[in-house]
Write a structure and sequence with these properties.
Blueprint lengths: L10 E3 L8 H4 L5 E4 L6 H8 L1 H9 L9 E4 L6 E2 L11 E3 L3 H10 L8 E8 H4 L17 E7 L3 E5 L4 E8 L2 E6 L37 H5 L3 E5 L4 E4 L4 E6 L4 E8 L9 H11 L5 H16 L22 H15 L2
Parallel strand pairs: 1-2, 4-8
Antiparallel strand pairs: 2-12, 3-5, 3-6, 6-7, 7-14, 8-13, 9-12, 9-14, 10-11, 10-13
Helix pairs in contact: 2-3, 3-4
Organism: Cognatilysobacter bugurensis
Protein name: Cupin
InterPro entries: Cupin_8, JmjC_dom
Length: 338
């Protein structure tokens, strides 16, 4: 029996893929959109047979290379660290996309295939023309559209800054999600050495060691699970933790990433790393003083924060715009590079 609680993600049916409503794309909770892209030719081809799904992708291939994770059969599809977290249990390759499609086809019937995974590859670069018949309407948004493909794999729980609409094209996938406040209960690994750019939970969801990671039991009380069939989609709000398991020998997912903030706003991860460098190791009293400063100027900021300062003199305390953000970035870079 799976240790994950069977609390299901809320489902919607009959959503129009050509005109996704704002209440979906701005939701603050995960949503499963059943059958959202079932009409895609790519989905129908893969449902016929995995081989026909692979052939469908081949017709758009222009010879682009891709970033591929390759692991030995004994990792069981779990792309992770080595035993002491000093490296990883897989290696990276840069093969042509067609070589990865060939490898997936070659190992479709293997009982213990090598673990193969191509992650976050821009669709318009590697498969130009694919979106002509396989796309969704994002209501004027300009998302980054990526394709993910592989065989049976397990991607550790992680969070992404953008909002995410993930569409299952081939194979079944299980998503296990946690709200952002479960950070401490998920036992997150290193921030600056990660398998694919995002910090991950070091808990093995298939066999969680609750003696070593006892707070994970609390995280499980807040877990939400979604099982996606080909043609289904899931909306994952910004910063929600999600563990992704691909359940079949050939899996394809297309996802749409976008932010609800202007492009000139920097990544909050940069602020976190800078705070670790400059605030975390201060003496206790000084750190508490900065905690109050962050609460006042950042987390509890409102119209009253700078109301006592004349508007023309508020500078960075005024609402940010592109010009002010550019000026602030230049000032910060000058200080950091002193």
């Amino acid at each position: 029996m799976s240790p994950i609680a069977e609390r299901r993600v809320h489902e919607l049916h009959g959503v129009d893929a050509h005109a996704l409503p704002d209440e979906v794309l701005t939701s603050t909770r995960p949503l499963v959109l059943r059958g959202l892209v079932a009409h895609w030719p790519a989905v129908r081809a893969a449902q016929a047979t995995p081989a026909s799904g692979i052939d469908y992708l081949r017709q758009f291939d222009v010879g682009s290379t891709v970033a591929a994770m390759v692991g030995a059969p004994d990792i069981g599809g779990r792309f992770f660290y080595n035993d002491d977290l000093s490296g990883f249990n897989f290696h990276m390759e840069r093969p042509p996309l067609r070589a990865m499609l060939d490898a997936l086809a070659r190992h479709l019937d293997d009982a213990a295939p090598p673990a193969l995974y191509v992650g976050s590859t821009t669709v318009d670069t590697c498969l130009p023309g694919f979106r002509g018949a396989n796309d969704v309407g994002m209501g004027g948004r300009d998302p980054l559209v990526s394709i993910w493909l592989g065989n049976r794999t397990r991607i550790a729980a992680h969070q992404d800054l953008p909002d995410n609409l993930a569409c299952a094209v081939a194979g079944r996938r299980r998503f296990t999600l946690f709200p952002p406040e479960q950070l401490a209960n998920l036992y997150i690994g290193p921030l600056d050495l990660t398998p694919a750019g995002q910090a991950i939970s070091v808990v093995d969801f298939k066999q969680p060691d609750l003696e070593r990671f006892p707070r994970f039991a609390q995280a499980l009380e807040h877990a939400q699970v979604a099982d996606l069939e080909p043609g289904d989609a899931i909306f994952i709000p910004s910063m929600w933790w999600h563990h992704v398991e691909a359940l079949d020998a050939f899996n394809v997912l297309v996802n749409y990433w976008w932010r609800q903030s202007p492009a000139y706003m920097d990544s909050p991860m940069n602020a976190l790393m800078l705070a670790i460098m400059s605030v975390r190791d201060l003496p206790d009293e000084q750190r508490r003083a900065w905690q109050h400063a962050f609460e006042h100027y950042v987390f509890e900021a409102d119209d009253r924060t700078a109301a006592h300062i004349p508007e023309p003199a508020r500078r960075v305390l005024a609402p940010l715009d592109e010009a002010r953000a550019r000026e602030l970035r230049a000032r910060l870079l000058k200080r950091i590079n002193r």
